Amino acid sequence: MIETLTLITLCVLFLIFFRPGKTPPLESQLVIERPGQYKITLAPKLNLAQPFIEAIIDRLAKSGVSTQHGNARQFFAVGDRQVATAHGDVYLLAIIVREGMIHFIGVQPVSGDAAKHLETIKANAKDLLKDFLVSDERSKALEDSLLSAIREVSGERGIVVDQLQDQADK
């Protein structure tokens, strides 16, 4: 009887002190690259956004959309309770398809001012946006596919996603 009670007490103490918890946010930038497929670049402390982004990648792969022809870009403010930033639960995400590669760039907003979100994410993606052209029907279809994939995945996960657009893009 006393052995059983001791064993139960030890198990409970072990679970209290050594149970798996939430992955702590990384203090450095996270870069994941699958050559020829995609590259994910997340700012410090946004590593918890990785499962959401990989779900978007899976959804795009299942949809059969070809990224080999055409360029596309989409910008979002993502409200995710799992990913806390200095300005609340919102981070900025750029999805850019260029030369057959999908690039995901996640950054923290520089301020709580939503009007500056598009400017912030574009500044972080400036190398990919240099000489960027979106003009043909394939590019438009690819942008629509990106938008559809992120909306479907965010709906399944209870994540709020707001598309960021220039006045010229509307």
Task: Give your account of this protein's structure.
A 6-stranded mixed β-sheet has the order 1-2-5-4-3-6, with helices on both faces. The protein is built from 5 helices and 6 strands. The relative contact order is 0.16. It is of the alpha+beta class and 170 residues long. A hairpin with a 2-residue loop joins strand 4 (90-98) and strand 5. The protein has one domain. The model has no long low-confidence stretch (mean pLDDT 84).
**Poorly predicted segments:** none
- Helix segment tally: 5
Radius of gyration, whole Å: 20 Å
N-to-C SSE string, H for helix and E for strand: HEEHEEEHHHE
Largest sheet: 6 strands, mixed
**Oligomeric status:** single chain
How many angstroms does the end-to-end distance come to?
Answer: 73 Å
Beta-strand content bin? 15-25%
Share in helix = 25-40%
What global shape is seen?
Answer: elongated
Query: Which strand order do you get reading across the main beta sheet?
Result: 1-2-5-4-3-6
Question: How many separate structural domains?
Answer: 1
Query: Which structural class do you get from the secondary structure elements?
Result: alpha+beta
Mean pLDDT: 84
Number of strands: 6
Core attributes:
6-stranded mixed beta sheet; 170 residues; alpha+beta; 5 helices; single chain
